[in-house]
Amino acid sequence: SQQGEEDPQALSIQEGENATMNCSYKTSINNLQWYRQNSGRGLVHLILIRSNEREKHSGRLRVTLDTSKKSSSLLITASRAADTASYFCATVPPNQAGTALIFGKGTTLSVSS
Amino acid sequence: DTGVSQNPRHKITKRGQNVTFRCDPISEHNRLYWYRQTLGQGPEFLTYFQNEAQLEKSRLLSDRFSAERPKGSFSTLEIQRTEQGDSAMYLCASSLGIRATGTEETQYFGPGTRLLVL
After folding, report:
1. What is the full DSSP assignment across A56-78?
2. Tens digit of each residue's pLDDT (9 = 90 or more) over B13-35
3. Residue B48: which of A94, A98, A105 has the nearest Cβ?
């Protein structure tokens, strides 16, 4: 079964605008990761945030984590048409050998020029 | 290195037939994962190998599914007696596991094999 849900399910914005996606999960985690998936290139890892971190940046990406609310958000600033894709959060339970990622259902982002 | 590759990219089969998919991970990666993704959903974990040892299997992996990684390099996923519910994208990922627990590894995904069972 899947860990949680992304919100919204779909998001349409104009180039240059910011896009915010939220992820809620159900159980305790070691870390939370965001992935992007488009039809041409498969799933690509974007960023990882540990359970003891609250915010992390990578280029135009900003991720926050609130473990008390079991939620995370991904902000993409100054969006581009190339950001059009589905975005998934994935969690990793604590004390687990290997990294069987538990994905949410994803947010489909459409950026129009 | 060209990344994780999967073959075939697409497979159409009739219900009841057997199918086999192959995954070639990034060459130095010792960990390999299989996931399944249906339309509108996120990937769901199926199974995981550390070198040639299959260390974890999901409940999703019924008796009709078998995965191998005989020499710790490429892996195959076989589905016997396919059912229409097996139609999905099958994704393979690999990672370099250094620590005993791999909780912060980055998994690199292949393009997937899309299976359609008629």
Report:
1. EEETTEEEEEETTTTEEEEEE-S
2. 999 999 999 999 999 899 999 99
3. A98
